[in-house]
Structure formats: structure tokens, C-alpha cells
Amino acid sequence: MSIGLVLGGGGARAAYQIGVLKALVQFYPRNSHIPFDVICGTSAGAINATSLATHAACFHLGVKKLDWVWRHFKTQQVYESSVGGVAKHLLKMAIKGLQHEKVNTDAASLLNNQPLRELLNKLIDFDRIERNIHLGALKAISVDASCYNNSLSYSFYHGHHSIENWKRARRQGKRSQLNTDHLLASSAIPMVFPSIKLNRAFFGDGSVHQLSPLSSPIHLGAQKLFVINLDSPHKHKDVLPSHHPKAATIAGHLLDTIFSDTLNSDLERLQRVNHTLALISDEDKNKLNLRKIDTLVIKPSEDLGMIAAKYYLEIPIAIRYLLKLFGIHQQSDSSIISYLLFEKAYTSALIDLGYQDAMTQIDDIKAFFDIQTK
Which DSSP string do the residues of 303-361 spell out, in sequence order? Predict the structure, then answer.
């Protein structure tokens, strides 16, 4: 059966996805192509998905390359983090706020992610996607982004010629020649990173307006879904708070909602549909044009916010002071740090956690992929 890989968004948390893939790749020969016919990614997950698609003909090489990049990450590779760079960007944004919108049309943002554009241009060869599709190593890859002009969720996909565009309520799939702008648009966290112009419209993080994250892989032909969800458990304090939550805490909750809630809701909806289909006849299933979609979900067993707090001092000093302006520090009850901490000590810890969590479910993974081992 056609298997789809779904990689959710979550900034630096996406390093966890590499650990899960490392647990899976060890059961395949070194010259094997990826075990996924369809790959769908959102936000930082879109970057991982696209990199994997460019190495679809060699699963081991694709995972090895992603593992190396994430284990050697520095914040300065994703957004400007030097004292001078941060000050210059904030001054530019302040001046922009005083100018008329027709005078300065640049996108406003808290951070300057130009380094990420340079990194993606250097590491990802988008032409390889078409070659892998032609060789049969991949059927389709899609990247989700949110349009700020019409509030629709777009799935920009590159796939087999038999796949057609689709339209549903508040979302649609559009065949595209993927490039760096699609990845920057999909990973543009609102207000943090600037919006990206695509086809005369402006786009931001794919998790915004994303009503049905599982829609894309199903439309692209996946019959089974392997989902790496970055939603982690939260360690709640036993003592009730004596004051209102601070802005940093609320902002953290908003990011958690954007990146996780719709995916969790869509998974629950899919389970209900599968349960309903099990109660009706095959003839009625055909009339309804519905089919059962098996899923296997891997998600963090530990609070990623608490892990990030351990590596707080790894954050460049300019970014630490910037976060303090918003009330975010090492002891603050906010998950924002876990999304913005692109430092190798933290990302390596997430890779290791992803590997451990996948190995605890290795029997389920083997059964899902029909892996036969002696």
C-alpha cells in the first residue's frame, strides 16, 4: 500500500523527526530508496520533507545528511543573531513602522531569516525531486503554506503527472515547481519571520489556517500515514498560579496551538471515519467514496520546553536579551524557546529522544512498514 510521511511544524523541534527516521532507516539496505511514496511537510517539517525528497533514491544518504545538518546547527544559520545584526534589523523595523506603507514595502518581522535562505540555497537541490519522481523513487512531495491575502491553506506539490489539483473548503492543492521561497513561506512563523511573496500573494507558516493537515497526503494517493507529531506533554505545576499568565506564556500556548492542535484534531477525525467505515458494507464505502486510512503516530515522550530550558545559555546573547524584553527567560513557563533554539546541543538531544521514542515502538513500526527481520 502507498505510504505517506507527514512531518509537522515546530521550528527547532523538527530535529526530533530526524531521530525517528534514524530508527527506521536501519532496517533498510544502504542502497534502498525511501519507504514513502508521498512526503508532506509543514513549516520546519517542510524543510526536512523536501531534503528527504531530494534523496528519495537513497534513504540512508537522505537521513545521514539531515542528521549531520541538525547536529551541527547554529542559530546564526537560521536567523541573524549577532548583537550588531539584531540591533540593525530592529532599527530597520522601527523606521519602517514610521514610514508610509507605500514607501517601504518590505515585510516586517522580529528576526531576520536571510541566513536560512542562504543555507537552503546551498543544501537543497530541487532539480533532484523531478529526477526521483521520474525514477519511481517518489510519487509526490507537498509543502503547506498559508495565504495572508485570502486566508486559504495551500499545498504546493510536485508529483507524478497523474495527480490533479484539488479544491476543498478553505484549502487547495496546487502543482508547483518547488523552490526556496516555498520553504521559507511554509516556515515563516507569524511576526517572528517575514512573509514571502508567491505568485502575487503573500504567504506565511503553513500551520496557520491549516484545517486538515492529513488532507494533502491522502489527495496525493497515500493509503497509510506515518505521522511524526511534535506535540509534547507539558509538565504542569501542582501549585495553582497566584497571578495571570504572562505574555510569554500566552505566546507559547499560541504557538503550541498553531503547530499541534489541528493535526491532533485531524487524527481524531480520521480515527472516527475509520471506525465508521468498519461498520458499513463495501458497497456503501464505494458510494461514499471513502476508504480506511491506517496511521502510526510517533510523538515526543518528554516535554520539549523543559529540554530547551536546559540549553537556554546556548542561545546567542543578543537573542537572550531580546527574549527578556518579552518576559522570556530560562525559568519562564513558555515553550517559545523550544521553537527558536537552533543550537546543536539542543537539536542533538531532540534527535536522540526521537530515536529512543521510535525504538520503544519499533514492533509497531515494523508491522506498519511490513519489515521482516530474522
Answer: -HHHHHHHTGGGS-HHHHHHHHHTT--TTSS-SHHHHH---HHHHHHHHHHHHHHHHHT
pLDDT tens-digit readout, 141-172: 999 999 999 999 999 999 999 999 999 988 99
For 68-88, write each residue's pLDDT tens digit: 999 999 999 999 999 999 999
Report d(CA 227, CA 202) in Å as an integer.
28
Query: Closest Cα partner for 191 from 180, 200, 179, 204?
Result: 204
- Contact call for residues 239 and 55 (beta carbons, < 8 A): no
Q: How far is CA 44 from the centre of its chain?
A: 4
Strand pairing category for 140-147 and 201-204: antiparallel
Three-state SS letters, 115-148: HHHHHHHHHCCCHHHHHHHHHCCCCEEEEEEEEC
Cβ distance 214 to 266 under 8 Å?
yes
